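Students often ask why inverse folding is considered easier than folding. One informal answer: many sequences map to the same fold, so there is more than one right answer. In these notes we will look at a single instance of the problem. The structure comes first.
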C-alpha cells in the first residue's frame, strides 16, 4: 500500500474531479480568464517514478492476454499523474505563484516496469483584470 497523497485521497476521487485545489489556478491554456498575468516565475514541475506492485503486475499481465482496458495499470497511471500534479502545485506555491499556465503531462518508461510521470507548466502571478 502506498502512503502517497493520491492513495490517501483515492485515485477515483481525483479521476471524478471531487478533489479541488483552489489555492492556485492551473490551466492548460496560456492565460486565465478574468486575470492579467503580472509576472512569470519560471517552470514548475512534479516528477514521480512508478512501477506496478507485484499483485497489480500479475493481475494486469493476465488481463493483457484478453486485451482491452487494464484497470490495475490505469489505476497506477492515474495515481502517478495525481502525485506529480500535487508536487507541481506545491512547487508553484513555494514560488508564491497565483497560477500555472500551459500545464502538461509527460511520461517516459526508462527501465522495464518503471515509468517517470512529469507534470509541468509555467508559474505566474496574477491580478484581476
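Output (designed amino acids):
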Amino acid at each position: 500500500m502506498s502512503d502517497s497523497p493520491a492513495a490517501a485521497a483515492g485515485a477515483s476521487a481525483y479521476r471524478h474531479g471531487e478533489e479541488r485545489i483552489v489555492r492556485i489556478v492551473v490551466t492548460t491554456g496560456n492565460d486565465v480568464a478574468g486575470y492579467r498575468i503580472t509576472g512569470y516565475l519560471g517552470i514548475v514541475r512534479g516528477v514521480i517514478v512508478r512501477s506496478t506492485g507485484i499483485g497489480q503486475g500479475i493481475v494486469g499481465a493476465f488481463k493483457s492476454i484478453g486485451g482491452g482496458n487494464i484497470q490495475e495499470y490505469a489505476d497506477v497511471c492515474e495515481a502517478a499523474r495525481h502525485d506529480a500534479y500535487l508536487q507541481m502545485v506545491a512547487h508553484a506555491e513555494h514560488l508564491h505563484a497565483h497560477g500555472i499556465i500551459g500545464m502538461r503531462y509527460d511520461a517516459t518508461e526508462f527501465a522495464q516496469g518503471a515509468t517517470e510521470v512529469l507534470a509541468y507548466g509555467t508559474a505566474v502571478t496574477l491580478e484581476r483584470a
